[in-house]
Structures are given as C-alpha cells and as structure tokens.
Known about the structure:
Order of helices and strands: HHHHHHH
Strand content: under 5%
Low-confidence stretches: 229-237
Number of strands: 0
Shape: globular
Number of helices: 7
Number of domains: 1
Radius of gyration: 19 Å
Helix content: 55-70%
Mean pLDDT: 86
Structural class: mainly alpha
Distance between the termini: 20 Å
Amino acid sequence: MGVSRSVLGRATMLLGLCGFWLGLGIACWRFPGEYDWRYMTVSNLFSAKHNPSGYVWGAAGVVLCGALGTCWVALGFGRSTTAVGCLRRRVSPLLAVGFPCMTLAAALPSEWLIPKGHDWLAVIAFLALCSGLVQAWVQSILWRVPAPPLHRRARAIALLCVVLWPVAGAALTQAYLALARPELPWVTLAWRAQRIPLFLSFALWEWLTCFMLSGCLAMLCLLPPAPPQHRIPTAAR
C-alpha cells in the first residue's frame, strides 16, 4: 500500500508539473505581440491587462500544479522508512504551505484579498517551495552516494550552488541596480532596445529559477526510492 501511494503521489505531481508548463506555454502563445522571456517577467503571462486572452491558461496551470502538489504531499511525501524519508518529513510542512499558497495566489480574485495579497501569497509560496524542494533534492542526491561527513558537506555546498545560482543572481543584480543604477525602470522590452546588459534583467533570473526548481521537482518524482541500506531504526523515527 505504501508503494502504491508513493507511485500515485509522484505521478500526480508530475502531472501537475506538466500542467504548469503547458499552461505557461499556451499563455505565452496567446500573449498579444512579442513575449521575450529574457526581458519579461512571468507575471506578465498572468495579467488580464497584459495578456487578456491567455492569462486564464497561465493561472490554470499554476492552480493545477499547486493543487496536485498538495495532493502529492497528502498522499505520502516523506512516509518512507529510509533516511531520505525522514528528511522529507521535515520539509513536508514547507511544501504543505507552499503548494496551497501557490494555488490561492493564482485562483483568488484580487477583490477577495487584502492589498498586495497576491504578492504576499506568491512570496510565501516561493520561499516555502524553494526551501523545501531544494533541501529534499540535495539530501536525496547525497543519500545515494555514501561519503565521509566532510565530503558530504562539500557535495551539499556544491549541489546548493548548482541549483540556487539563479536565485543568487537575481538578488545580486537587484542589489546592484538599487545602489548603482536606481534610475533604471522595471525590466521591459525597452531594455533590449536600450542594450542594457541582459544579466541585469530580473526576468532572466526569474525564469532560470523556475527552470531549476522544476528540474528539482521532476527529479524528486522520477528518482527511484533510496537504497534499503539507508533505512533507519524505528527508535530514530
């Protein structure tokens, strides 16, 4: 029964992830005029003002992914008796907060929320999902390659650098713009015409972060269970 729940949960999450990217793809296709992901943030796809004929598709993809992600957590993410399963139980509360907030941010109309309600829900969803998924992904990789503690720490740092470099890029470039070039407006296609360096574009780093987190989520769903030797004693659970 545990295996069937695990398989069902992972299949459900993969379906949600596919729905997320399908919704974004259709929203991008129906976007009026040119959509250049390097200079246009994801939020443009969800805006009724900027994408009147496609925003519903983008929002539907986010709602589907968030709802099925919540189902994934409820179906037993972290129920395994392995050490990886114990780590997942510790990050499950993060995912249990992140996925519903993701769903609500896309599903609820602005009139139902406090001012900046969508922004707050989106920030909470990002922080919870990013923290939970990255922790689970790093530990899932580490437990498959046994190593001394010092090597494990070095590998953990390396893996964190691999997956979090877009987040660091976004933070560093925004700090630079605030301090050195505060006169620049928010990133738009006008940046491309003005030949402003691409690496300063928040949209670029936002999309790269989205790709990275989607990759982590897909790997968590597709990787086989941890080896039996990593099962933990009952007293330690």
